[in-house]
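Request: Have a read of the protein record below and say how the chain folds.
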Amino acid sequence: MVGIIRKLMSKKDKKKSIQHVTYNKKEFLAPDCIKSMSAIHTKIYPDGTGIIRISNCHNSIKIWNNIGDKEEVKEFVDKINIMINSLNDFRNELMKRHGTHHFFSVRIYEPEEVSKSSKHENE
């Protein structure tokens, strides 16, 4: 139903309904691979909505929070830290199984760096 309503809206009405973001960053996860459109896209909207979208060619997940107050920001930062820690654990398992010599083309964040930044942000 929403799609039908959007099709009926004029271009002028569509422009009025678009919220411009106050933070907008997209980074491709495999920038050297022309076949991959995998990316992480982060946005903050003026209404206080923070969004993280992780996508590949076929699927995407979206994690969002209203970041209008300290409790919401803390919850969002906690979600981000859990994702970072889980990805670090998975990366470490891959490196343990397959060696580390060819995995250093990107900056590697150690768990201590993540926990230090989250402690600082929670103060």
Q: What stands out?
A: The chain has a mean pLDDT of 78. The beta strands are 23-28, 39-44, 49-55, 60-66. The first helix runs from residue 2 to 8. DSSP finds four helices and four strands in the chain.
